[in-house]
Amino acid sequence: MSSSKGDVASKTPLRLGVAGLGTVGAGLAILLRDNADIITKRAGRPIEITAVAARDKTRDRGIDLSALTWHSNAVDLASDPNVDVVVELIGGSEGTARSLVEAALKAGKAVVTANKALLAVHGDSLARLSAANNAPLLFEAAVAGGIPAIKTVREGLAADRLLSIGGILNGTCNYILTAMRETGRDFSDVLAEAQELGYAEADPSTDVDGIDAAHKLTILASLAFGQPVEFDSVHVEGIRCIGALDLTFARTLGYRIKLLGLARQSERGVEARVAPCLVPEATPIAQVDGVFNAVIAEGTFVGRLMVEGRGAGAGPTASAVAADIIDIARGNTVPVWGTDVTTLKATQSRPASEWHGAFYLRLSVADRAGVIADITAILRDCGVSLSSMIQHPSAKQEQNVPLVLVTHPTDESAMQAARQRIAALDVVSAEPVLIRIENF
Amino acid sequence: MSSSKGDVASKTPLRLGVAGLGTVGAGLAILLRDNADIITKRAGRPIEITAVAARDKTRDRGIDLSALTWHSNAVDLASDPNVDVVVELIGGSEGTARSLVEAALKAGKAVVTANKALLAVHGDSLARLSAANNAPLLFEAAVAGGIPAIKTVREGLAADRLLSIGGILNGTCNYILTAMRETGRDFSDVLAEAQELGYAEADPSTDVDGIDAAHKLTILASLAFGQPVEFDSVHVEGIRCIGALDLTFARTLGYRIKLLGLARQSERGVEARVAPCLVPEATPIAQVDGVFNAVIAEGTFVGRLMVEGRGAGAGPTASAVAADIIDIARGNTVPVWGTDVTTLKATQSRPASEWHGAFYLRLSVADRAGVIADITAILRDCGVSLSSMIQHPSAKQEQNVPLVLVTHPTDESAMQAARQRIAALDVVSAEPVLIRIENF
């Protein structure tokens, strides 16, 4: 990119090549058309799509793009002489998306992408490619949709040392957990409904198993702590294990259940993890419901900061992509991880077993004498101290009843050991549900 | 500023001249010392204070600044050849602060300021001075302390057309209203306590009368709508009129009371206003308590976005000031109002009488027959329709009892006419308290 501040008054358009014309790609084209007046003023020059790459030229996308150059191979956008900026909206950490982004950076072209998987898995090498070719790589839309979370962390909080970063990073899971809480229905019921409404994919595993949130957390942690975090080292749990009962018990205990991505930095290093958590009802994060996302950062000087908004959808995502394009038009870009990449060294997250915190444990136990004594003896032997317990008498004289235990803060390794021993008891009939409690 | 992207590896420090060494100035010096490692990496070069201007050289500020150049006249920082960037932390829309900022911009030096009054009152002329001299003027700390609200609006949401902007912009008022709600005490009591705790100034009028929030709202609205809004045209009400009774009634009705700055853009133009408002208890803004600030923006594509954090204090404010300095070191600056200033024309806020919305009206009325009939007749005659009413019987057989009326959405002019006629009734003993209801 050779745009400089002196160009502001010129009218040479910044030319985009857009790969992928799904919801977000079409949304971007519509946004650039509808907001052309303000975008031109803020970018200092017109921004126009000159070339696209998508499978189906004939599909109705709500905007006529037939006059543009169509590439059957998206990677060709990188060598199209009429493309200044490549916008990658294909998705996926490998394949065409990766080839296109690498080819564009190598060609010295600026790249804007919404691809969280690509940045989480290959961010380190892409950052080096971007620096080596002096080709900016921007990815605001990769985390939390329309919320400028990356700009907030990388620029807005650039002067502070961040201690933690994270939040509600997957709208599908938050929608499902919110609907389960509000309706008392079970996971599979609500998932099916979310799929019908378009809030969940036909194959929901990337969302409900926490992978998508882990991609986003990896990016946020890398930015916040100034070193690329290796995606494979991030501990990931999804929400399939959460039952309607858990949401009811959480409420009784004064909590809500949220799938949190959470990364901390301490003298021991970086700890990053995605897992369902109980959060106190009165905290701001507990109030973030439905498809909304929220990112919380905590710094030594700035204290705690929360940003909340729409984490997905054509409009919010297109807004984030176009904001990146305006930054490129202005010549205002920042290295991928906020600092000179040659000084950076990728780091691994510490294992989850090293975490420390309080736990919620739900068991299905036989409704007979001595059960609680056996279970509490195991907890005592493992050094886990109990804070409270809920046992409802069996209303229907069922054989098994739920038993909920809440612990004081303890080492995760101790708690996992206790859980394993408890699960092996004859009187415990189903897989125990273990959920962390976070005062986040 | 001549910094360019190519300089990143060089070690030439960016030299600051800091005017004003109160809490924020000293906090900035401590931040730059404690976080020097990360700031140098993110800025691409060291950042150091070379000169200062403050009244008392001997005061203990928690950091030794005696070796720096001290100017007895702050304006001299603008001509100090060892100063690249002037940091103005004196405050006030006139006097030394204004002279210094103008002199620095005229000298072609970048300026960073936390001065909301200066930007709100003189932002238009300062923007022109900044553009004419190619001298960036950054003011992230002027709005919402450590929250990067300005960056969020001016860059993060640059691609979208914003419909509204506003929020809880004054921590002192929010602290007072929160404490009044939690303790049931009256305004003057809680204000005295806030003054003791350092949350309110000895002369609290700038805060409690809404002026400070109006300064910040003026800046946000100017950014959001891409045209400078004239500060004098913004409607301003403070919180002195709010009684402990109002917080109790608000709770009964399912609301909380917040001092909101709120600006909207429509075909009619810009409407900007600061006033205490009832907000539904379940909304995110209602949950923002104590000294916290929150900014909500709504755009056509991005939807609704909220940022929440510490709106004041040495650490958060210093973090915002230093983030601006890093942007300058990187050469990543944006025009004051986000676009070429020569195309901008200052605008006035539409008068408050043109607003439309629901109202809460608390009266102190004689406890006798016919009172309600008289009052509701006036409302009917003015075209104001009632939604609900609370009248508690006088417990102590007092002469006057509170009567609370909640209206359906109505024109503000109609409501004000009704209020005036109701206030003139013999049976109404004190000035009616009229509070707007906002679903914000």
From TrEMBL, chains A, B:
Presence of the UniProt keyword Amino-acid biosynthesis in the record: yes
PROSITE patterns, per the entry: ACT, HOMOSER_DHGENASE
Entry's transmembrane regions: 12-32
GO terms of molecular function: homoserine dehydrogenase activity; NADP binding
Pathway as given in its UniProt record: Amino-acid biosynthesis; L-threonine biosynthesis; L-threonine from L-aspartate: step 3/5; Amino-acid biosynthesis; L-methionine biosynthesis via de novo pathway; L-homoserine from L-aspartate: step 3/3
Catalytic EC class: oxidoreductase
Keyword Transmembrane helix listed: yes
Biological-process GO terms, alphabetical: methionine biosynthetic process; threonine biosynthetic process
EC number(s) stated in the UniProt entry for this protein: 1.1.1.3
Database matches in CDD domains: ACT_HSDH-Hom (cd04881)
Gene3D superfamilies per UniProt: 3.30.70.260, Dihydrodipicolinate Reductase, domain 2, NAD(P)-binding Rossmann-like Domain
Residues annotated for NADP(+) binding in this entry: 19-26
InterPro entries, per database record: ACT-like_dom_sf, ACT_dom, Asp/hSer_DH_NAD-bd, HDH, HDH_cat, HDH_CS, NAD(P)-bd_dom_sf
Residues given in the record as NADPH binding sites: 116
Residue positions of the active site: 216 (proton donor)
Residues of the ACT domain: 360-438
Keywords of this entry: Amino-acid biosynthesis, Membrane, Methionine biosynthesis, NADP, Oxidoreductase, Threonine biosynthesis, Transmembrane, Transmembrane helix
Binding locations of L-homoserine: 201
PANTHER family, sorted: HOMOSERINE DEHYDROGENASE
Family to which the UniProt record says this protein belongs: Belongs to the homoserine dehydrogenase family.
NCBIfam families cross-referenced by the UniProt entry: PRK06349.1 (NF004976)
Protein name (record): Homoserine dehydrogenase
